[in-house]
Amino acid sequence: MSKTKIINFLVALKHEALPIIDYFGLNLNDKKHRNIYSNVEQNVFLIISGIGIENAKKAVIKLKKLNNNKDDIWINIGIAGHKTLKVGSIYEVKKVISSNNENTFFTNSFYNKVPTSTVCCVNKEEKKYNNKYLYDMESYGFLEALDSPTIKENIFMFKIVSDNLQFKPKSYKNFSVSFISKHIRKINTILDKYRNKPPESFYDISLILNIIKNKYHVTFYNKKKLEKILTKIFIIKSQKEIKNDVLVSKSLNGLIKKYESYLTKYILKI
Amino acid sequence: MTKIIYIEREIKDHFRTKLICSKISNPEIIVIDRFSEIFNKKNQSFKLQKNDPALIIAKKYKNLIHKTPENYGIGNKYNYYFSYMYNCLFDCKYCFLQGMYSSANYVIFVNYEDYYDEIKKISITNKKKNITIFSGYDCDSLAFEAISNFMSCLIKKMPEYENIELEIRTKSTYSKLFSKNIIKNVIIAYSFTPDRFSNKYEKGVPSVDKRLKVIKRLSNLGWKLGFRFDPVIIYEGWQEDYKELFIKIFQNIDIDNVHSITFGKLRFPDTIYKKLIKENMTESLFFNLEKKKNSYESSNENNIEGFLIENLTKFIDERKIFFNN
After folding, report:
1. For the packed helices B150-157 and B112-125, what is the interaxial angle rounded to 10 degrees?
2. Minimal-distance CA residue of chain B relative to A199
């Protein structure tokens, strides 16, 4: 069982994806998913959504069909415009609004030593920038699709300022490759902080459950009950002791009752 | 210290918002409409947020002060509580807040005057009644005081409200606000568990010795003190540790300044327990809690009540001791 969470990247365009594909050693997932890249060993996935809110939303839904764990990390990286901010500078987005003020979405609330910003997500290229916002075209769809099942603390968004009133890059393609490459190491360092799963998620109770299943008929109800009990028992007994308890037990009910009573009588050790 | 600050639009120019922000170096400010947009939402993890909580500055409009449950008190018949903040700077593994909220970010309500007015109202409308008002339910009363300044302002007003006792409950050692001019109707109440337990399960809480140093100073000045052993935690060797803790505390202070002692079992209402256990499945602190009618609590087998009464009355008059359950 993997000790790290899956990372799912969403970018709008191929040239925004290239530095990430390169950095994480991602490969085209399979012929069925022409816009999904992955490095399965490292638990890293990337989807290229195409431009726009709806495309971003569809892309999240598509990638969720591959990875739909509650504790997956989701991250949107892309370029954005601003009235005055320095071109090439990176911002972590904490809040996203849409240009028609439909709803507001938030990402994680952690401080990652990167300046933060709010994004205004638009449907078409914005000509009049409001100084308060970065402007992009995908963030709203990305967060809308993640709104209910994903824990906010696992949602990240980074935008690199690509243009302001003084400057527009000659080639957005070259700009994206160059500046995302420049910042990807930093982004990865940030994500690393959040990738470790809590220790309880990798107690391997399945082995013990299988031993129990080989010995007794286990109903769905009892399986759920055993999962809960064994997760706790694993904290206070070794696997060897638990195996032995199963071997010497005379009935499943007896085993469950023994462990329930063991937990009730348990005295905390410091 | 927190760096990310969410501020409600309505109070972004409030003098207190500015004051709080000025005490945090280079804050990252995000303007929001209401704190409920980001606080205590379903898809949040208290445990993950607790690693790096952000600050939310907000305004509270209603329900500023509540009545306490009927069996809760330190001598007076009429009891209220309030929280000018949600969530705590400390990280106590048994804290019920992790089962109450899905968010560990700190919320601070800057309209202090509305709280002070409510206290004044309670005092005026209940002139002939003796009332206790508790602070420190949804937060530690003093842990954020260096930044918030809430209690410093409140205690100055307390001499006006003679029928009200204010309990300031804390595990913090912050005590700048308690000067030589003692205020008779303010009780500074310190929560304790034994050192050995506290070191492991109360992250960020000052050591027992550090707290005792402050308590000794306050006792010498003549402030009324409260001691809260709530919850009493059962673990291997708990009785010896608690005996030692009582000696450490009560042999070091002027007993006459002890206003009250309260204690209680480790206990959680059903709904809070279920939420808490979801994120703390493997926390052995909760393994032996027994299911009661509407709660989960420590077993009666350990006779916490008998043990505490027996050992506390060696130092303190039994009339000052209250069992809250």
Report:
1. 30
2. B282
Beta strand pairing call for A104-106 and A116-121? unpaired
Contact indicator for A149, A70 with CB cutoff of 8 Å: yes
Residue of B nearest to A116 (CA): B28
Q: Is B168 exposed, middle or buried (0-12, 13-18, 19+ CB in 10 A)?
A: buried
| Segment A240-255, tens digit of pLDDT | 999 999 999 999 999 9
- CATH number, position B72: 3.80.30.30
* Residue carrying the six token digits 């505490």: B308
Q: Are A108 and A131 in contact (CB under 8 A)?
A: no
| Nearest neighbour of A200 by CB, restricted to B33, B282, B285 | B282
B42 contacts A148? CB cut-off 8 A? yes
Measured distance CA(B118)–CA(B97) in Å, rounded: 24
Chain B environment of A200 (Cβ under 8 Å): 281-282
The answer to whether B30 contacts A116, with C-beta atoms less than 8 Å apart, is yes
| pLDDT at residue B67 in the model | 94
Residue A117 C-alpha, separation from nearest chain B C-alpha, in angstroms: 7
CATH architecture of A7-199: 3-Layer(aba) Sandwich (3.40)
A270 with B237: Cβ contact below 8 A: yes
Domain boundaries, chain A: 7-199, 203-264
The total number of structural domains in chain B stands at: 1
Residues 6+ apart with CB under 8 A from A210: none
Closest-CA distance of chain B to residue A105, Å: 9
User: With the CA atoms of A92, A78, A176 and A193 taken in that order, what torsion angle do they form, in degrees rounded to the nearest 10?
Assistant: 50
d(CA B241, CA B56): 38
pLDDT digits (tens, 9 = 90+) for B99-152: 999 999 999 999 999 999 999 999 999 999 999 999 988 999 999 999 999 999
* pLDDT tens-digit readout, B160-171: 999 999 999 999
> Is the predicted ipTM greater than 0.85, yes or no?
yes
